[in-house]
Amino acid sequence: MTKKLFIKTYGCQMNVYDSERMVEALGGAGYEEVKTPDEADMILLNTCHIREKAAEKVYSELGRFKHLKTEKPDLKIGVAGCVAQAEGAEIIARQPMVDLVVGPQSYHRLPELEAKAGQGAKALDTDFPEEDKFDHLAARPKAKRGPTAFLTVQEGCDKFCAFCVVPYTRGAEVSRPVDRIVTEARDLVERGVREITLLGQNVNAYHGAGPDGEAWSLARLIWALDKVDGLERIRFTTSHPNDMSDDLIAAHGECAKLMPYLHLPVQAGSDRILKRMNRSHTAESYIRLIERIRAARPDILISGDFIVGFPEETEDDFRDTLTLIEEVHYGTAYSFKYSARPGTPAAERATVPAEVADDRLQRLQALLTRQQRATQDAMVGRDVHVLFEREGRNPGQIVGKSEYLHAVHVTSDRIAKGDIHRVRIVESGANSLGGILAPS
Ligand code: SAH
Ligand code: SF4
Ligand code: F3S
To answer: Which residues are recorded as binding [4Fe-4S] cluster 1 (predicted)?
Structure first.
């Protein structure tokens, strides 16, 4: 009899990819995925530890499953991902109805852990095992799937930004070998995928073993994927400014499959704060880097991440961040109020008052929203290429993404999911663009 698995994913795209792989791993143990927790035999929360709010969500969500466990005592409840890694057995101490805790580097062992939990024991695995989990996961099934996919190529981080839990929850940087990635990409293309986003916490630090035994850069990997027939678009995220190598910058100008969108977080615009964040770059070096990238690919859309209210951030420091944003002009950006994370160096330092941080976040977001809106509005009248992914809200509408990752909706009966069409942008809405098929 097939058992039913409900999995809920929090956090970054790497968790989205991991969740897919966990579903596949448990598929071998007789599970199929379902869309609601009520019908599940096992509930898995794939969690994020990046900010306090993200971590606390897990416990409130677990609370909501209490009645299900009472009604159905055989129901297994598991916590995976970065909270599992960071808190381990504490999760079971705080929420005893949890049966299973598994970290991001050991989820290939899920079938064994599930069997253990099935015998009534608590199952915990937060090792950073020697073996590569990807070698131990079942081969990916061949079922048809949507036109876009994530593919993890690098995991972990050695940068140790003073605010960040990732080096602790995901461990040291590890890159997967080139041939495995190319094989996985080919399989995805056979299943209908036309766009792959290469993932890594520090993806541009990629240095996986190539077929020649040398360590290949991300740019070399992208050129290898460029040769995969049927793969039309390549993206990658997330990058660190210090790992934007010359060959990767050049690839943005030369590789037609590499899309003109780059997420390159800077976090702050004050050198004093960048230093305290242990970012090992300056505002000036970041701005020069953006100039070089734009010289290689003038239309590239730049995206970023920002933290406001980092310990000891003054009004002047904050204004330096606004100045940097004015200089760079972001097409889109994500901004966060600093959240002290246990075990990180910055957590020991004096914090900025909450109301000051709130006010800065609002001012920062107002500026970023203006830039995002201006970038989007400037698309009106232009032709873009859209990879269509799903039905829209209105009848006959179909939605996809442009090269620049803008959501574009078109009403037409001549478009199928998975198609790429040239689209003329005719309107710019709050979060998406509207277009018509461009006259050929
Ligand atoms: N590896 C990526 C992203 C890491 S997490 C990178 O280096 O860019 C995604 C974003 O969350 C970070 O870029 C940062 O802006 C934010 N973030 C990380 N730790 C945080 C913290 N303690 N408080 C607030 N925001 C944080
Ligand atoms: Fe965290 Fe910094 Fe590593 Fe990004 S580079 S994952 S922000 S430590
Ligand atoms: Fe969150 Fe872990 Fe990703 S902390 S952002 S899920 S790497």
So the answer is: 12, 48, 82
Q: Is the CB of 346 under 6 A from ligand 1?
A: no
Once rounded to an integer, what is the mean pLDDT over residues 79-102?
95
175, burial (CB in 10 Å: exposed 0-12, middle 13-18, buried 19+): buried
pLDDT average, residue stretch 125-149: 84
Nearest to 364 by CA among 340, 339, 330: 330
User: What is the fold of 133-377?
Assistant: pyruvate-formate lyase- activating enzyme (3.80.30)
User: Best substitution site from 14, 53, 161 to test ligand 3's pocket, by max atoms within 8 Å of Cβ?
Assistant: 14
308-351: per-residue pLDDT in tens? 999 999 999 999 999 999 999 999 999 999 999 999 999 999 99
Would you kindly state where each structural domain of the chain is located, as residue ranges?
Answer: 3-125, 133-377, 383-437
Q: Which pLDDT band holds residue 141 (cuts at 50, 70, 90)?
A: confident
Residue range 204-218: mean pLDDT, rounded: 97
Probe target for ligand 2 pocket from 161, 199, 242, with the most ligand atoms within 8 Å of CB: 161
Atom of ligand 1 lying closest to residue 50 CA: 19
Tell me how far CA of residue 217 lies from CA of 109, 159, 297, 351, in angstroms: 30, 18, 20, 39
Output the average pLDDT for the chain. Answer: 95
Q: Assign domain 383-437 to its CATH architecture.
A: Beta Barrel (2.40)
Reported pTM: 0.96
Write out the CATH class of domain 3-125: alpha beta
Q: Any known ligand binding at 255? A: no
